[in-house]
Specification:
There is one protein chain. The chain is mainly alpha-helical. The chain is 63% helix and 4% strand. It contains four helices and two strands; from the N terminus they run αααββα. The protein has a two-stranded antiparallel ribbon. The chain is elongated.
Length: 108
């Protein structure tokens, strides 16, 4: 079970944030194109950064705490999921605070 540690943490992050979508009606997931245009470019940069760090020997992952599914360049699937899940959770949190405070984000 320890090999799922990284994934379990990511699921916990999602569980802690996804309820904001229906409860506060933040509409982050509903505006999925906007979400993808926000998250994917940043995730791509961090994937490249990680690949460089892995190749240089500066970065590694504990094999006992990841799924063992690797993408090109020795990058674990868990890490790519991190680059997608954490920003989505942050955006959900931002939009939730904005909704509760009734403040515009400047893009309306």
């Amino acid at each position: 079970m320890r090999h799922l540690t990284y994934v379990v943490v990511l699921v916990g992050c999602l569980a802690g944030a996804l309820w904001l979508e229906p409860f506060l009606r933040v509409n982050v997931v509903r505006r999925w194109r906007r979400l993808l245009l926000t998250v994917l470019p940043v995730a791509a940069v961090f994937v490249l950064w990680d690949l460089g760090a892995i190749a240089a020997g500066h970065w590694h992952f504990d094999p006992e705490q990841i799924t063992g599914i690797f993408l090109g360049g020795g990058l674990p699937l868990d890490e790519v999921l991190f680059f997608l899940v954490v920003p989505v959770c942050a955006i959900l949190g931002f939009e939730a605070v904005r909704a509760v405070l009734r403040r515009p984000a400047g893009d309306e």
